[in-house]
Design brief:
By secondary structure, this protein is of the alpha/beta class. It is built from 14 helices and 13 strands. The strands form two sheets. The chain has an eight-stranded mixed sheet with strand order 3-2-1-4-5-6-7-8, with helices on both faces. The protein has a five-stranded parallel sheet with strand order 10-9-11-12-13, with helices on one face.
């Protein structure tokens, strides 16, 4: 069974099933289609499936032409999970958020796996790509698979291979980013390498699914901790009247031992704000208190409140109260030049501003209409960042540093700017750095 599946993956007669057509699943599906595989994408959202099937994108940094090209090559999107039986691979690319108590919410992964169980068969490879804590693949997925009577390692092959997508990054894509892969057994590992090695330039094998799960967490906790450090340094530097960006740029000239990280209004995206809590939660099972990681999380989580205090102080400096002020959030995606809103600190700041009685609006060319979100409910459209509109607001908050904004024009027309991204490095009477 193992060799038969490896042969199908090698000669590209295997049908690639990808479950979850989001920011991870879509690029992966496009890559497999480009490499010559027949691809079937599964999703529970009929509107998303309909759009993809018509050759249209719903993710701004992925153009319609790429979707259409994949459809022309035979890529199908469907809500019919019975077709999972026809696929040879089931690659799970579904969300793993935190619940209201900041504990791992595996409901999307487990519900998806449970929905697939009736259609599992011998010869399937199941790969989980969603970020999660070490042990999820062998503790949660393996027992479910084997409850069907199929044996992992003989009949079905189970691997964990964490996604490494970086939306909007022009220097790397799905093919060129090395892919970590860990199998539940040696046979599973062999199949996992065959699954990815024909579409990814470099596959990095690790000894187990748990090692692969921990690798993903280390990557993102590394960033979260260093961002927490520089955010705290920003607060200290601000109190001392020092430009933190000047300091970072100077430190970055050291050719060894220093990697520049930059402060911001908080952490955004699906990985960095969430992953540390997956490890801290699991570590408690082993009696380990991850104090260093949790402290960085506290610093990063406090940044929206820090920005709010900067806004209040800046308005006070102009003899205005935040209550009743008109404030424009410039950029609400979690990072520049994409439309991804997941865990965006800009949105949390918008909520804090509104709670203080201000009239809040936003401008984001990547998000023309404020989307439905689990935690926030804003009914509004993006405002054009024209000179006429900028003049009407008491305060402009730079939340996301999209290249599309005319920062010089905004500075010349704004009454007050609170800059959370370091876009204004010089001395301006109407700019406050936050």
């Amino acid at each position: 069974m193992k060799q038969q599946l490896i042969n199908k993956l090698t000669d590209k007669t295997a049908i690639i099933g990808i479950v979850g057509l989001g920011y991870v699943g879509i690029p992966l599906a496009l890559r497999y289609a480009e490499a010559g595989y027949k691809v079937v994408g599964f999703d529970i959202d009929p509107e998303k499936v309909e759009k993809i099937s018509s050759g249209k994108t719903y993710i701004k940094h992925i153009p319609d032409e790429d979707i259409q090209a994949a459809v022309d090559r035979g890529f199908e999107a469907t809500i019919d999970f019975t077709r999972a039986t026809d696929a040879d691979t089931l690659i799970l690319c579904v969300p793993t958020p935190l619940d209201l108590h900041r504990e791992p919410d595996l409901s999307y992964v487990l519900d998806t796996m449970d929905n697939l169980l009736p259609y599992l068969r011998a010869g399937h490879v199941v790969s989980l790509e969603s970020t999660t804590y070490p042990g999820t693949t062998d503790e949660e997925l393996k027992p479910r698979i084997e409850s069907t009577g199929l044996n992992v390692g003989d009949d079905v092959f189970l691997v964990y291979s964490p996604e490494r997508e970086d939306p909007g990054n022009p220097n790397f894509n799905t093919q060129t980013i090395p892919k970590v892969c860990g199998g539940d057994t040696e046979a599973c590992q062999d199949v996992g390498v065959a699954l990815y090695s024909h579409v990814i330039d470099k596959v990095v094998s690790v000894s187990s699914t748990r090692a692969a799960e921990m690798t993903k967490l280390l990557e993102n906790i590394h960033r979260a901790v260093n961002i927490g450090l520089v955010n705290e340094m920003k607060i200290v530097a601000d109190k001392m009247g020092i430009d933190i960006y000047e300091v970072i740029d100077a430190a970055a000239t050291k050719p060894f031992g220093f990697v520049p990280y930059y402060p911001g209004p908080g952490l955004g995206g699906h990985c960095i704000p969430i992953d540390p809590f997956y490890l801290t939660w699991k570590a408690r099972e082993y009696g380990v208190n991850t104090r260093f990681i949790e402290l960085a999380g506290e610093v990063n989580s406090s940044m929206p409140e820090y920005v709010l205090n900067k806004i209040v102080s800046a308005l006070n400096g102009q003899k205005k109260a935040i209550n009743g002020s008109r404030i424009l959030m410039l950029g609400i995606a979690y990072k520049k030049n994409i439309d991804d809103m997941r865990e965006s600190p800009s949105v949390e700041i918008m909520q804090l501003i509104q709670d203080c009685g201000a009239e809040i609006s936003y401008s984001d060319p990547y998000v023309p209409v404020f989307p439905k979100m689990r935690r926030y409910n804003f009914t509004m459209d993006s405002v054009s960042a024209t000179s006429e509109n900028i003049k009407t607001y008491d305060c402009i908050v730079v939340g996301t540093d999209h290249v599309d904004f005319d920062y010089k024009m905004i500075q010349e027309n704004a009454k007050l700017i609170v800059d959370t991204r370091g876009m204004y490095r010089g001395k301006y009477d109407n700019v406050v750095n936050a």
